[in-house]
Amino acid sequence: MVLSAALPAAASRGDLALVRFLVEELQLQQELSAEVFSAAAGSGCQALLEWLAREQGCPVCGPDAWVRAGRLGDREVLGCLLRLGVPWGAGLARAAEEAGLPGPVTDWMEAEGAQVGQGREAEDGGVVVREAHI
Question: pTM (2 decimals)?
Answer without folding.
Answer: 0.85
